[in-house]
Every structure is written in structure tokens, then in C-alpha cells.
User: Fold this.
Amino acid sequence: MSSPFERIKIPLETEDTIKKILEGLPKIATSDPKERCLRRIRFVEEQVSRYEFFLKSFPKINELHPFYKEVVEILTGDLDRFRICLASIKHAVFLTRKLSKDYSRLVLKEEKDFNKYLREYVGRVFSILRRRKKCINFAIEISKQLKKLHAIDPNLPTIIIAGPPNAGKSTLVGKISTAKPEVAVYPFTTKDVHVGHIIDEFKKIQVIDTPGILDRPMKERNKIELKAINAIKNLEGVIVFLFDASSLSMLTPKEQINLYNEVKELGKIVVPVINKIDDVNKELYTLIKSELEKEHYFEISAEKGYGINELLNYLLDIIK
Assistant:
């Protein structure tokens, strides 16, 4: 399955469109001045019509899967504002087409000063575009980001790797799937949702690498964290929650348990996994273990490979 945003046709930004029009108009030449003027009007309309192609190529937001719809909401910060911008761009195309018809009629009636109408027409079209410059450029920037998204199939069996920053999520994803995410020792290396796959003789399973999340109120979380929450909340599958038991852990045991409990409240299958057992902070490790003593949990070292086969076999058994 491809991303629903893959086929978006990105147009030029406002000033680039205006520049292209200004550079293109003198190149339209013919011996008949009236015909030249009409062709130039058509050229301007064609450039503005590219925004209509953009709108038609953009998927209908209300028809998107909840995961992808929330992606748009996270990136825009305000879905209603984005919808208003798309409507404003559509209106700009409508107004330009109306002006094209009106001024083409005026040129056809005129016997001498065709350029007067052309100058007036071009000026009014540029005014229409510039009044909507913020909206046009905002919609284009969001669309560029959406086109870069990794294709995730909400209908595939899915393993979602979640947890605090620097807990080893990307390392684990790289070990059990085809994904090759960036791995580093500093937190928030993963800034987006990445996907890999496990393929066996019976089924194809996607493995999602999510950005780290912190123990804090939802309203205080940044866009990177919200992308992780979106995947956890809106993709069906098994969630592997990684605890960081090392001395480099960013979060205390209490903060990690709070995060784990928040994820469990979503009512999905959550498998707790203590990572970095090759380099534990004994106090932190003991406190996490004591909180999980009544649960079925795993201990692994994603970096060294300890315990990964046992974890993966368990996940493949329970995944739908």
C-alpha cells in the first residue's frame, strides 16, 4: 500500500508562480496583436490552474484513515485552518477563470489597446494570488511534508515499538525487521514514524518505530511525541513498550511506569520489555522489575541481541 499523499501534485509557491508568469508572457509571440493578448491570458490562467490540479490530487481529509487524518492534524496544528486555506486556493482559481473570461471578451471587442486590458488582468490575478500567499505557501509546505511520509498500511498486522526517548526502539526495529532507522546515543533521534516489515511463509507484518515520548500532559507534548501517540492510538496491533534500565535513562522508573500505564489505558495488547540488560543501572532495573512483577514481561539487549528471539517468537504468536 502506498501513502495516500504520494500522488499529491505540488505546485509552485506564490511568488514563484508570479515569476514564471512574468518570464513566460514575453515569450508568447504572434503577428496578430489581439491573438497574442488572448494567448497570454490563457497562459496566465494555465499557471494558476496548477493549483486546481494540486487540490484535486490532495486526498479528501474526511475519508482518510484515522492515523493519516491525525498526521495531517499534527503537521498543520489546526485542521480547520488548513481546510480554509484549501478552500481559499480553490476560490483563487475560480476568480482567475472568471477574470480570464471577462478580459478575453474585452480584448475581442477592443480594436487597438489590447495591452491595457492585459496589464489590468495580470495585475488583478497577481493581487488574487498575493492575498492568499500565506495560505498557498502553508498548504504547499504541509503537502511536501506529507509526501515524505513512509507508507504505512493500517490493515496489515502491526507491531508498534513505543517508549521513552533513547530506550533502544530504533535498534530493536532494525534487528527484527527490514527497516534501517537511524540509531544514535542521543535522545529524540527518531523524529518521525518509520516502518519495516517481517515476512514469513504465512504473513507480512509491519513493524513501526515511533519517536520517544515523555511523561507529561498531552497538551505539553511536541509534534514529535504526538506522532508517536498517533501511531499507538490509531494503528491496530501489538504494542511493545520498551523500558530503559540503563544508567543513561532519561526518565525515572516512576515516569516510565506512568508512560506504560498511559499506553495500557488505550485498551490494546501491550507487551512490557526491559531493554539494555547488558548495561543496567541496578537500582533503576530493580524498581522497574518490581512494578512489572505481576505481568508477563521480557528482558532484552537490543544492541547485543540478547532475548530478541524469544520476544519475537512471542509477538508472532499473538499478532493477528
